[in-house]
């Protein structure tokens, strides 16, 4: 596998992360309360961190890339995504974030399954694993801060 092809995959993933950064920046403009803006700024910073991780993966030997197994609480499986709005609740923001990470996870998982080359498959698996970690973080927040209220 040529380095250019792997770089193209990483560039693709970085573009998805930049879109996520923009998504959270736009949401910050919509919400009214500072605590919601702070939460969305935290999510934006997390997405910026993903870009850094992707750049680090670019520098690694693909053979040395690890694909950690990530727990899935499946909370997002049972939630319906909401549309961004000015009056979003904390719960709505978490659901939106979970669904966004879930979609990214599915994208990379599908691309991994369709890949014929082991190196490309492994790279997509690693990217899917990263998205699964982020989804898990949101699911844990939801579990601790929303579901515990019921």
Q: Can you describe what's shown?
A:
There is one protein chain. The chain is globular. It has a single domain (3-149), classed as Up-down Bundle (Ferritin). It has helices at residues 3-30, 34-59, 90-114, 118-145. Helices cover 71% and strands 0% of the residues.
Note poorly predicted spans: none
- The CATH superfamily turns out to be Ferritin, core subunit, four-helix bundle
Q: How many independent structural domains?
A: 1
Distance between the termini: 51 Å
Number of helices: 4
Radius of gyration: 16 Å
CATH architecture: Up-down Bundle
DSSP, total strands: 0
Describe the secondary structure blueprint for this structure.
Elements lengths: L2 H28 L3 H26 L30 H25 L3 H28 L5
Helix pairs in contact: 1-2, 3-4
What are the salient characteristics of this protein?
150 residues; mainly alpha; Ferritin; 4 helices; 71% helix
Write a short abstract of this structure.
With 150 residues, this protein is mainly α. Helix content is 71%, strand content 0%.
């Amino acid at each position: 596998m040529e380095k250019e092809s792997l770089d193209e995959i990483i560039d693709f993933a970085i573009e998805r992360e930049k879109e996520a950064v923009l998504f959270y920046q736009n949401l910050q403009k919509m919400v009214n309360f500072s605590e919601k803006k702070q939460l969305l700024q935290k999510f934006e910073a997390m997405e910026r961190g993903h870009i850094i991780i992707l750049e680090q993966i670019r520098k690694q030997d693909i053979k040395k890339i690890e694909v950690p197994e990530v727990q899935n609480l499946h909370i997002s499986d049972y939630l319906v995504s909401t549309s961004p709005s000015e009056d979003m609740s904390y719960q709505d923001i978490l659901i939106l974030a979970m669904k966004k990470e879930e979609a990214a996870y599915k994208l990379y998982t599908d691309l991994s399954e369709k890949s014929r080359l082991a190196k490309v498959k492994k790279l997509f698996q690693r990217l899917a694993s990263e998205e699964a970690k982020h989804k898990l973080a949101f699911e844990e927040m939801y579990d601790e801060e929303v579901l515990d209220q019921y």
